[in-house]
Amino acid sequence: MNNNHASQARLLGRLFENRGHPRGIRQQTMEKRRNRLLAIGVVITFAFLVIAGRLIDLTIPGKGAEPLLASASPLRPAVADRVGIVDSNGIIMATSLPTASLYADPVDVPDAGEAADKLVAVLPALNRAEMMVKLKSTARFVWIRRNLTPKQKYQVNRLGLPGFYFQRGERRVYPHGRMAAHVLGFTDTDGLGIAGIEKYFDNVLRNGKASLALSLDLRIQSLLHQELSLAMTEFKALGAAGTVLDVQTGEVLAMVSLPDFDPNVPGSGDKDGAFNRMTKGVYEMGSTFKLFTTAMALDSGTVTLSDGYDASKPLRVARYTISDFHAKNRWLSVPEILVYSSNIGAAKMALDVGASTQKRYLDRLWLLRPAAIELPEVGAPLIPSPWRQINTITIAYGHGIAVTPLQLASAVAALVNGGVYRPATLLKQRRGLPPEGKRVLKAETSRQMRELMRLVVRSGTGRKADAVGYIVGGKTGTAEKVAGGGYRNKAIISSFVGAFPINAPRYVVLALLDEPKGNASTSFYATGGWVAAPVVKRVVRRMAPLLGLAPATGEDAPQPGNRRLAVAGDGSRAARLAAF
Amino acid sequence: MSTFPRTDTSLIGRWWWTVDRWSLTALTAIALIGALMTLAASPPVAERLGLDTFHFVRRQFFFLLLASAVMLATSLLTSGGIRRLAAVVFAVTLVFMVAVLITGEEINGARRWLRLGALSIQPSEFIKPAFAVVAAWMFAKRRQDEHFPGDAITAGFFILVASCLLLQPDVGMSILVAAVWGAQLLLAGLPLTLVAVVALLFLSGAVAAYFTFTHVRIRVDSFLDPSAGDNYQVMRSLDAFRNGGLFGRGPGEGRIKEILPDAHADFIFAVTGEEFGLIVCLLLVGLFAFVVLRGFSRVFRDNDLFVLLVVAGLLVQFGLQAIINMASSLQLMPPKGMTLPFISYGGSSTLALAWGLGMVLALTRERPGPGRLE
Fold first, then answer.
1. What CATH fold (topology level) applies to the domain A85-214?
2. For residue B355, is it within any domain?
3. Which ranges of chain B have pLDDT less than 50?
4. Which of A230, A243, A398, A483 could make an SS bond with A289 (beta carbons 3.0 to 4.6 A apart)?
5. Distances in Å between the alpha carbon of B19 and those of A449, B26, B319, B365, B368?
6. Are A55 and B281 inside 8 Å of each other by CB?
7. Does B103 map to a domain?
8. B256: which chain A residues are within 8 Å (Cβ-Cβ)?
């Protein structure tokens, strides 16, 4: 009963309040405020819950996330492992070794003097005075010494000095030293490539998984390096360069530029040593260009092998006089022009070909634009502009145009391989899949060029390149160096570019000497035929067995130059030609 | 705990039995963690600045002691006393704010500090609680007296304070003051449409700030696109939490404090995470949330609008400041330099917060009489 009364009273009270009584309105307003306060409270609680959730999410390691200690330290993140470089046979040419580098936090070094004394005792290469300056500085990080050996690291650790720490690092090592210095390039102290393949493929090497395989064959690289070094010493040349190309794939089997440097010791070579003569240096090549003049004349149908030109007297064009070094002073057949390296004949042939055809062929042979090789050090050819008649004439025998030796070798490869140009590459190509090339000459022209090149070695200026049994064909080149606006007679670039075996060419070999001096053994001649051709001969003789090419001897030996293509002796008017 | 008998009717005795001892305990715990964290985070910063190792530690310990005294003294005040003191502080700091704009020296591209002899104070820290009280006062008076233009006065004051802050410029502090005032607007019972309009105005103000202030734009952009901007500090902060894990790397074992210039202030939460781990961080989050919600619950049934608005306003300020600081360290929002209450180093901030929380304690004391419902 009492309960009933009480609840009735409460009900009445509520009805009474809700009927516009001032106290009721006040109550309603407070209710509204409470609801809003509740809403704000909910929002703030939600925000705190989000923070708590984020904290838990960050802190409790989820899917394999690891604590990022390395990046929380004040050190630079260690350079990721740089992959190695190998040659085409998988032999290591460059690799990275883990090392420890010592650094100090001078603030944590309590006694700089004691620490310096102890360190110098263990690492005698350190200078005590320098150490004192470093250890008393206010920096929080000073390098003490990079790349300690494991033994040195052990010894430093044993000193138990506070404030000294090791940073794991890498050191780039080139086991073969100078041998392929210009191809490989080198890295800086932080392991970043700054020259050669190391620079060109820096990203690949830094992020790669497997070693980078080059087309180089270390054995051939080694013997080319050796032969060029010997010739450079023998003829007191300023420099030397050479390469071996696979004519079917464009792969560079060897590439040497001398003088060179030791990539293990960056900065070991002087400026000249760092200069890659093969890809960066551009030179007037001289008579080797007569190969291209002849090829374009034959390919365009301007001449046939039985045609010829009068070379009985020097050619005068404007104020220039073009004469022959090995002057025969008579009519010369097209093969004879090459064999005797007649400037007059080549010039007349080029005039018949015409400037635009000459330019088109040279461009197709990639002689007018920089080589597309995988190196940062690539030189652009120097070509005349405008291209006058006199340029057409001089370019016919390799003057007034400067190209890199690599461009020359690549173009010669296209001349002999059936007429297909393939850019030289330093990367190992997959077997059985010759890279797609670009046809630049008719196959027939290429065949004729092979005959002519064999003829040069058999009977012409390139006789000293004839490695018996390997059927070398090629062309010599001797060019006077430009200096002070004119040509210097005594300063020459002597070269020889050859291919073998010339009946079915596999390789192009090029050797070039910069300012060789003749000696008694060469009758004081320093021309390509005397100084560069023997290098090619020796290289061919040494590399052929390594590549599984047996010498052809005796009756079975194909002697195309001998049997089928003979150069007429003096007085004879034409060379008798036969199918190759 | 009960050192005073119930019958003690002295000032202190009555205070002890009426003050909210739960909030008091939570605030004491926060301050103790703050002392610990200053000890952990500030020595490397001091050394980096070429100061004595314990420079910041000594100063912050002094500030914390002073802050305790300020908080306790304020919590003894009556509602009227709080109102009068706040009005005076508001007037004085407003003058200081203008003075800062004229004479203050520029530090990191902003004029925020006022030199008074050997002291150097940040008036904007004090204007936050002072303005909250003055605004609450005006709102409440308007509700008692229809003819009193209280709402208009607070709006005018708000514009004045916000302008001073934006001129410094201190965008973060402006947003905080706006949020607190907006919450009071809501709680004062104004129509929701009006509140929505004000909220929209604030939003457009924020967008305008993005286009006006380069540093705001850079921070927001690099937050939205972490790969583009300079996120170094926040990235290191996240690493610190990850490295801390559940239990932390141990006191003094943290590394982030050696890298971040603001390890003792804006990024002290990251130092806490690295050295003391998730559990202590969660405890800290819980303590902040507890102080806010406990205060809310104490005034939930209070019929005194002024009390409701002051307590809610000050607690929203306190809570938001903690949320913004922690969310910045955790990359939940663009980094905003804001102190973590009682944890971050800073005299002005600590003292102003102590004063604010002192007012909260004073107004949430048990009061007899008609002020309470039921």
1. Penicillin-binding protein 2a (Domain 2) (3.90.1310)
2. yes
3. 370-374
4. A398
5. 109, 13, 20, 4, 13
6. yes
7. no
8. 72
A-B CB pairs within 8 A amount to 114
Assigned domain for B138 exists = no
Residue B359, H or E segment: helix B347-363
Is A287 an annotated catalytic residue? yes
Select the more confidently predicted residue: A192 or A62.
A192
Contact A257, A375 (CB under 8 A): no
At B372 the pLDDT is 44
With a cut of 70, say whether residue A271 has pLDDT above it.
Answer: yes
- Residue A34's CB is within 10 A of a number of other CB atoms, namely 17
Give domain limits for chain A. Answer: 85-214, 221-579
- Residues of chain A in contact with residue B316, where contact means CB-CB under 8 angstroms, are 40, 44
Highest CATH level, class, for A221-579: alpha beta
Residue B205 distance to chain A (closest CA, Å): 22
Which residue in the list A287, A341, A459, A495 is annotated as catalytic? A287
Q: Note whether B236 contacts A45, CB cutoff 8 Å.
A: no
Number of domains in chain B: 1
**Shortest Cα distance from A34 to chain B (angstroms)?**
6
How would you classify the pairing of strands A212-213 and A85-86? parallel
Per CB-CB distance under 8 Å, the chain B contacts of A52 are: 282, 285-286
Domain span holding position B68: 19-77+169-363
Residue B259 inside a domain? The answer is yes
ipTM: 0.92
- Give the pLDDT confidence of A18-51 residue by residue, as tens digits: 444 455 666 777 788 888 999 999 999 999 999 9
Residues B166 and B145: their CA atoms lie apart, in Å, by 33
CA torsion, ordered A373, A375, A380, A381, to nearest 10 deg = -50
Cross-chain residue pair B293–A44, CB shorter than 8 Å: yes
Which of B269, B296, B340 to probe by mutation at the A interface, max A CB count within 10 Å? B296
Asked if the Cβ–Cβ distance from A37 to B299 is below 8 Å, we say yes
